[in-house]
Amino acid sequence: MKTKEQYIDSIRKMKFKLYMFGEQIENIVDNPIVRPSLNAVAMTYELAQDPEYKDLMTAISNLTGKRINRFTHLHQSTEDLLKKVKMLRLLGQKTATCFQRCVGMDTFNAVDITTYEIDREKGTDYHKRFRQYLQYVQDEDLVVDGAMTDPKGDRGLKPSKQSDPDMYLHVVKEVEGGIIVRGAKAHQTGALNSHEIFILPTVAMSEEDKDYAVCFALPADTEGITYIYGRQSCDTRKLEGGKIDVGNCNFGGQEALVVMEDVFVPWERVFMYREYEYSRILVERFAGYHRSSYGGCKSGVGDVLIGAAALAAEYNGVEKASHIKDKLAEMTHLNETIYSCGLACSCQGSSTASGTYLIDMLLANVCKQNVTRFPYEITRLAEDLAGGLMVTMPSEKDMKSPVVGSLIEKYLRGVSQVPTEHRLRVLRLIENMTLGAGAVGYRTESLHGAGSPQAQRVMIGRQANLSWKKDLAKSIAGINTEEK
Ligand code: SF4
Ligand code: FE
After folding, report:
1. Is 266 helix (H, G, I), strand (E, B) or coil?
2. Contacts of 38 (CB under 8 A, 6+ apart)
3. With left for phi above 0 and alpha for psi between -120 and 50, is residue 189 left, alpha or beta?
């Protein structure tokens, strides 16, 4: 397994074509906007080296028998599924942001199950190819960016009916040794902190869309791939040189628009090619895994926000007020409900034909549906406890000003035992997580990440088993529809 330093060095060697604020960025690793997001991924390496977290952060590979980072593992039991959720909670607690590496892990598991089924049905050899690829990922301890979301253009039209055929990523043609692909993936979490990019289809498809039913992996800096960095609220505070106004000074999330312009993919890196019938199940499984992941990461980040709100109350001298205690209890209840769903869909998981364990799909969708709501309420309560000063307080430069710094120190103090700076720091952290750069990874991502709320409602509706429930009701109510 790589150390944190080896990981950072390995990303430094990549040759990404990245644009940000209209300019090409050469040194990505030391860029102050990018670096906090790299630090968040680096934590997945750092904790894997720590004996205290060995059980959660690492696993024994079913492919090689070697100890590997759990982010590259195929789940071999419900215990593995549970440990994944616990690992993500831990990382949320350590970074208070999205640490990005889970998308690849959830991709591997969904692709493993689905390629096995495609091969069984069609006599192809995708599964063997995929497992060889995954062994390489495990041996090298790589970060892989699972890339699913196409730009989608007119949402009312299928991929093949779009006026611009590139609105969904697709195969352009076959060439000697592989295929040429074109298109884009939007909102790509951790794209520039990844060694590899792994493309999946994003919707169910029919035969006419078969050129869009493609699944493959490439080194993330392959010729022909362009990255355009996603802005975050308050992101340029990271360029000001200070630490306090950023709120979460060391960690952050990352999203980018990834464009592939006629990129070559060798056959050995292609894991699905025009098997359109499997697009839906692959998407659903990936989404199910990622929805279960949110039960871990979002509850971990929630722990930090609850802690920050409790600190803000303490620094204001109101921690003993009954309504404050009640609000903190409510936040905890909501946060633990999210976590409970992550655990529930894991322990109700089951083995599939490939041997890889899949979460309970209904409960995973329920988990994410709760995540589309509860962090908003937790956020509201955190802002309530923080007070309005969170959005009206002066800047770090004013705090350090020889002229007005002492006025801020005097007038913005809460309880006398706590330095004013501590009070302001915790308010900036709450600001970061609720409406600043960190809100991407907590607030809005809770709504749209791993699929917007309606996507879960469709899956929940499909698995509600209403006819069986109607029979239960009939039986209890004494309704016998068999009678003439
Ligand atoms: Fe991982 Fe959560 Fe970020 Fe998804 S949103 S990549 S599950 S930390
Ligand atoms: Fe996400």
Report:
1. strand
2. 8, 11, 29, 193, 254
3. beta
Tens-digit pLDDT profile for residues 68-114? 999 999 999 999 999 999 999 999 999 999 999 999 999 999 999 99
Atom 2 of ligand 1, nearest CA residue: 297
Residue pointed to by tokens 């100890």? 67
Give the distance (Å) from ligand 1 centre to CA of residue 461.
25
Share of the chain above pLDDT 90, in %: 98
Q: Which domains does the chain have, with CATH numbers?
A: 4-278 (2.40.110.10), 282-465 (1.20.140.10)
- The token pair at 377 is 């309420």
Closest ligand 1 atom number to CA of residue 441: 5
Name the residue with the closest Cα to ligand 1, atom 6: 100
Ligand having the closest approach to the CA of 450? 2
Q: Tokens for 135?
A: 């062994």
CA distances from 318 to 55, 305, 310 (A): 40, 17, 10
DSSP helix/strand/coil, 31: coil
Asked whether 189 lines ligand 1 (CB < 6 A), one says: yes
Answer whether 367 contacts ligand 1 (Cβ < 6 A).
no
Residues 97, 40: contact at Cβ < 8 Å? yes
Does residue 483 carry a pLDDT above 90? no
Ligand 1 atom with the shortest distance to the CA of 190: 6
Atom of ligand 1 nearest to the CA of 99: 8
pLDDT at 167: 98
Query: What's the pTM?
Result: 0.97
Q: What is the pLDDT of residues 187-233, one digit of tens each?
A: 999 999 999 999 999 999 999 999 999 999 999 999 999 999 999 99
